[in-house]
């Protein structure tokens, strides 16, 4: 994985007396993390903010995804990145020139809540590149179109005794991933901030079944997942629109597993290790090796009609204290 920016600069607060030292440290930590106490991914409620752009140095961001084929992606600040919970979701972003849909792909350590960092390609679709920073409105997309069925990538170093998998093309925010080995017993995983789902004690011998659930209650089961570190295993299963199941195939081939769809659960309420290393700047950063990209099928998702954001002066401090 590669972080495309430098870490936060140190922020020191001065005050006298041992009695207030703990409070000072707490405030400093809050500033440094961008307000993690109120961290949560973006919601379907439209939010006003500002957007900048950056060029990815390497082939992957903090979410550990391959670069989208359309080059339309976004990096979020610590509060909205929410330790990886936002990874793989999509935002509709409106700017002075129109609207664009982007995939949450990376983190922006220095971005406060309300500041999003777009790929250059995405930025140019909604604003003038020369401006560098523009006013925007953005919101989370529910049940977005995705380029293909879900994919699974087993992390390098994984084995029967340490399980780590990345899920892609799920569209909605994920709630949980459970894994069953050859014995058929499902185990819970936990998500890392670099967007892999881990079982520290491993899932035993494969092949594996992965039960993936999103925050809207949609569930899919991916079968036939192999312990094949570094390869991308493709399925025909789509998570959005209801429960589904199917088998995986090796990297680079189409899924042959059948998909059985069922209706989405009714009245379900939505809920909202090796960390990636920070890099030297937003325009140039070191990146670690990732699996060779698997170009997804091209999809031109339809966007809701909305009036573009007017080309007005940008308040650089607007939104910085919001969660």
Description:
This protein is elongated. The strands form three sheets. Strands 1-5-2-4-3-6 form a six-stranded mixed beta barrel. A five-stranded antiparallel sheet has the order 11-12-8-7-15, with no helix packed on it. It has a five-stranded mixed sheet with strand order 10-9-13-14-16, with no helix packed on it. It is mainly beta and 323 residues long. The protein has three helices and 16 strands. The two termini are 26 Å apart. The C terminus is likely disordered.
List keywords for this structure.
323 residues; mainly beta; 6-stranded mixed β-barrel; 5-stranded antiparallel beta sheet; 3 helices; 16 strands; 27% strand; disordered C terminus
Brief characterization of the structure:
The chain contains 3 helices and 16 strands. The chain has 323 residues and is mostly beta strands.
Blueprint of the fold:
Blueprint: H1 21-32, E1 47-54, E2 73-76, H2 78-81, E3 90-95, E4 98-107, E5 115-119, H3 120-126, E6 134-140, E7 151-154, E8 163-168, E9 174-180, E10 186-188, E11 190-191, E12 197-199, E13 208-214, E14 219-225, E15 232-234, E16 244-247
Parallel strand pairs: 1-5, 2-4, 14-16
Antiparallel strand pairs: 1-6, 2-5, 3-4, 3-6, 7-8, 7-15, 8-12, 9-10, 9-13, 11-12, 13-14
Low-confidence stretches: 5-36, 252-323
Name the helix and strand elements from N-terminus to C-terminus, one letter apiece. HEEHEEEHEEEEEEEEEEE
Span of the ends, CA to CA: 26 Å
Kindly provide the radius of gyration, computed on alpha-carbon positions and rounded to a whole number of angstroms. 20 Å
Biggest beta sheet attributes = 6 strands, mixed, barrel
Note the overall shape: elongated
Q: Overall pLDDT, averaged?
A: 75
Q: Which percent range fits the helix content? A: under 10%
Number of strands: 16
